[in-house]
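Let's do one together. I've listed all components of the complex below, 230 residues spread over two lines.
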Amino acid sequence: EVQLVQSGAEVKKSGESLKISCQGSGYKFATYWIGWVRQMPGKGLEWMGIIYPEDSETRYSPSFQGQITISVDKSINTAYLHWRSLKASDTAMYYCARRGKGGSPPDFWGQGTLVTVSS
Amino acid sequence: QSALTQSASVSGSPGQSITISCTGTSNDVGTYDLVSWYQQHPGKAPKLMIYEVNKRPSGVSDRFSGSKSGNTASLTISGLQAEDEADYYCCSYAGSSNPWVFGGGTRLTVL
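Okay, and this is what the predicted structure of the assembly comes out as:
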């Protein structure tokens, strides 16, 4: 059974750094792209970036380029989303999701990590 | 990279059918048969309901169907049930540098 398990909720202050994680299981982790999706309170889904665990090739949405870093440790089947300096506007739910075969949009999703940033 | 366009809300009575549309451009929906639909209940992660325009994952009711014409994809839910009340999002591939373009979401209310 394919599963993506994300790290727990975080409460941080503006200016602090943060790294959240997403661990995959039940499939060959290294050969499926993993993406991150933001959902701000009461809003829709926004693609942030995506990484290929086998070689760490990474692509970012222009809206998030320079604001986040996506990385992976394929030895432990885990992808990461990292902020160097959080802002209050980063308060949101963050989902990791596995890209479907053939370039399809996501087929499996993590349960989400709620990040709350106070100013 | 603009989001795909969905109507904000739709409603229907139990047993009826509804259709949610998702309009993109020739850069995404119009070119690629890689459109997916997701159901999201409050406080839950999105769930894949349709992929590759009209395919259903195992376990998804056949009351859910998808189609595409030109730059517009559609999700039809037949025989509406109370548990179908949720937010629905479309998503299209739009090239290697923009792999996931989402619609703004449609809130389905079952009256």
